[in-house]
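One thing: mind reviewing this one?
=====
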Amino acid sequence: MEGGALRGLFSAGVMDVLMEYGISFDGIIGVSAGAAFGCNYKSHQPGRALRYNKRFAREWRYCSLRSLLLTGDLFGAEFAYHTVPNQYDVFDNATFEQDPTEYYVVCSDVVAGKPVYKRCIEGGDATYDWIRASASMPVCSRVVELEGMKLLDGGMTDSIPLAFFQQKGFERNVIILTQPESYEKHPNRLMPLIRMALFRYPAIVRAMKERHEMYNAQLEYVRQQEQQGRVFVVRPPAPLPIGHISHNPEEMQRVYDIGCETARSCINDILGFLSAL
């Protein structure tokens, strides 16, 4: 599951339909919002991602410029990644740990300018911090320090980690993208701001400068694998009607519903792809 901030609610809709049909996987890997929402698959909590995003859509501690100015994080590190899953919409750590699915998140090491792949086995705050690191967008998030590394959003260095998962032995994969098939990424217009914000980390600045090339190459690889029948790709039929950030619960619901509708329209094809294993 790739990222895309609140475009990830499309992925949440797709996942919830897959859960409704009782589909399980040997492994899951998520990047950024794909990591933040994808963990609910392993904890068997359909609806959770949409529920808390709508509930806290206008809560400044969850996501706001006020949070960015006061804490350095657009999405509040403590409130969004600890208070919500521990108190308000409790994450099922026991089920997460008992489910045999291997669960990975992708982060970016800002010093090396390379991706970091973390398998999260136990629930709780340590895993929440890895998910936070994976979803910490540059410029609007502080660098997250974990296990001696300085980390930010995984999409900066590996937006669609299909090749990594194949190297781990996962031969047939269902991929959830948050852009339509015609999408092509262009150079980031915010590079001057990124250079200023991350001037201490030239390797990640270089990675961000080249990110559109990396992403488009990954899209081409996905298309090749799709044509060869090795992956099944679920994409939105058109650009999703939401930005990276939204404070509108109805907008969130619409994007989630598009995900559900898209998954239902191809569920028989997904089941056929998986049954051919």
